[in-house]
Design a protein that fits this description.
- With about 130 residues, the protein is an all-alpha fold.
- It contains 5 helices and no strands.
- Helix 1 packs parallel to helix 3, helix 2 runs antiparallel to helix 3 and helix 3 packs parallel to helix 4.
- The radius of gyration is 22 Å and the shape is elongated.
- The relative contact order is 0.10.
Length: about 130
């Protein structure tokens, strides 16, 4: 891992699709960042501190972008390529939670719930949305 590779990944993650990263991406980031911080601590050079801080920000942006894409895909059931490591667990666990929630909602919408204020509003919204199609 190096700074240029991280910048390339950062640019790719600004796109709509989940970008391709190495399978050991997160571990490589930790190792690279530890190395930069160690170099700064040994030299106390301002330039090395700035590089370490910038690297942390780049990694944070990459992680945030990937996280948002994974959460959205899990909520909508969209299949994603290019997930690595714990991202796969995050996707499958969230997708299961979202699907369970949807099933619970279907099961719990009983006849006596149809007069509930929230369900009346929700029902009206759906009818209006469908009629606009």
């Amino acid at each position: 891992m190096n700074y240029q590779i991280l910048r390339d990944i950062q640019r790719n993650e600004r796109r709509q699709e989940l970008g391709r990263v190495p399978n050991n991406f997160y571990e490589d980031c930790r190792i690279f960042l530890r190395k930069l911080v160690k170099e700064y601590k040994e030299t106390q050079e301002t330039e090395k501190r700035i590089i370490a801080e910038n690297t942390m920000e780049i990694i944070r942006e990459i992680m945030d972008n990937r996280y948002e894409k994974i959460v959205h895909a899990a909520a909508t059931g969209k299949k994603l390529d290019n997930m690595v490591g714990s991202e796969k667990n995050l996707y499958y666990n969230l997708n299961k939670t979202f699907n369970d929630y949807k099933e619970d909602y279907k099961e719990n919408t009983r006849e006596d719930d149809k007069n509930d204020e929230y369900n009346l509003h929700y029902s009206r919204q759906n009818k209006q949305w469908i009629s606009n199609l």
